[in-house]
Specification:
With 86 residues, this protein is an alpha/beta fold. It has a single domain (3-78), classed as Rossmann fold (3-Layer(aba) Sandwich), CATH 3.40.50. The chain is built from 2 helices and 4 strands. The chain has a 4-stranded mixed beta sheet, with helices on both faces. The relative contact order is 0.27.
């Protein structure tokens, strides 16, 4: 049974070194998965380092949380175990 972890970083902005540390830790631990980023700006530098980036409303928008939840559901953010019924 292998493990998979999909992570979503909100307000990803310039958090390139943080993303790289998570990616390295996942590799060191043998955890498969994807690292996603969400931000309101298409110019966020970390968008170039995530597996997939998502444009969302700003944190003060009433839609912000719903948009993040939608991404989490679509991309199965969180832990998954393969080889068992999930």
């Amino acid at each position: 049974m292998s493990r998979s972890l999909n992570i979503l970083f909100s307000c990803v902005g310039r958090r390139v070194s943080l993303l790289e540390r998570f990616r390295r830790a996942m590799a060191d631990l043998g955890v498969r998965g994807h690292i996603y980023g969400a931000d309101w700006s298409p110019l966020a530098p970390a968008f170039h380092r995530v597996d997939e980036g998502f444009l969302v409303s700003g944190v003060n928008s009433p839609n912000y949380v719903d948009e993040l939840v939608d991404v989490c559901r679509r991309k199965k953010v969180g832990w998954r175990r393969f080889g068992t019924a999930a």
